[in-house]
Write a structure and sequence with these properties.
This protein is α+β, with helices and mostly antiparallel strands and 298 residues long. The chain contains six helices and seven strands, in the order H-H-H-E-H-E-E-H-E-E-H-E-E.
């Protein structure tokens, strides 16, 4: 009888040990998943494990892979930095001749030359093109400091609407939803203003522009939809490319506004996509929710 009792007790201890090991393994797997999620959202590297076993081996292989990815990212940043420096050099070299051309055009205007107005518009467009190209390359090269803080997206959106209402008094601007996002208010405001400007330019005089904000558990989504008829399907994949202009683009467009928006959104670890809606174009900006104080310990 005692023998069977010892056997049952021994089996119970084994089961408890197996359950404990399974619990610890699941806990480590959960921490590993959390660490990977934090890396994808914030770029915080995955630490190496000094333990033994398959799970530790998997963690270290993932850490090696992340290190290689970060190395490639650094190489890409170095290339962008060189491009930014080149763009800055070109911008500096162009400022003087453009200023000279503007001066000569203004002098011609005083002499009654009827063509100077068109020439001045071309000079202004060139100056704007150079400035936006330089800004784009500097964003890519991380030459600007982004200051992240919690901000109410509905207030940021309403500020952009308020800036455009005097320019387009007959258009209807609608806003629904609210959310708090950790972001750089100034840069994200510029990103939204770029897509709002694009919507204003491609809708009728009395067009409607509707913005909706959705606050999810893991992400925040901002959607801007207009009733301007949309764009050909073949153009959708190219809207955020540098210098790309849709067929119905404004003559004054530089083709850089949406490219700048994409880079700003990317700096917020977000994505921006475009699709044709029922009556126009729909642009969707999706941002992950990031806790600045989140710590991972595996």
């Amino acid at each position: 009888m005692k023998y069977y009792l010892f056997v049952i007790l021994g089996m119970g201890v084994v089961i408890l040990l197996l359950a404990a090991l399974l619990f610890l393994r699941k806990k480590r797997i959960a921490k590993l998943r959390t660490a990977l999620d934090v890396y994808l959202k914030t770029g915080k590297p995955l630490p190496y494990s000094l333990r033994e076993g398959d799970l530790a081996l998997l963690q270290n292989e993932l850490s090696d892979l992340i290190s290689r990815l970060e190395l490639e990212k650094q190489r890409a940043k170095d290339a962008d930095r060189k491009n930014a420096e080149f763009a800055a050099d070109v911008s500096h070299q162009l400022k003087t001749p453009l200023a000279g051309l503007r001066l000569y055009c203004e002098l011609d205007a005083q002499d009654g030359n009827p063509n100077t107005e068109k020439e001045l518009r071309l000079i202004e467009k060139t100056e704007r093109l150079v400035a936006e190209l330089l800004k784009l390359q500097k964003i890519r090269a991380d030459s600007f400091d982004f200051v992240f803080e919690d901000a109410a997206l509905e207030l940021l959106t309403e500020e952009a609407f308020a800036a455009f209402r005097p320019l387009y008094p007959q258009k209807r601007f609608e806003l629904t939803g609210s959310a708090v996002l950790r972001c750089d208010r100034a840069w994200l405001g510029e990103a939204f203003s770029n897509i709002l400007k694009n919507a204003c330019e491609h809708t009728p005089e009395d067009g409607r522009i509707r913005c909706s904000i959705q606050d999810g558990d893991e992400s925040v989504t901002l959607t801007l939809e207009d009733n301007g008829g949309g764009v050909p399907t073949s153009e959708l994949p190219h809207l955020f490319e540098r210098f790309y202009k849709a067929k119905n683009a404004s003559p004054d467009s530089t083709g850089l506004g949406l490219a700048i928006t994409k880079e700003i959104v990317s700096k917020h670890h977000g994505t921006v996509t475009a699709e044709n809606a029922e009556k126009g174009l729909r642009l969707t900006l999706c941002f992950p929710k990031i806790d600045a104080n989140q710590k991972i310990d595996i």
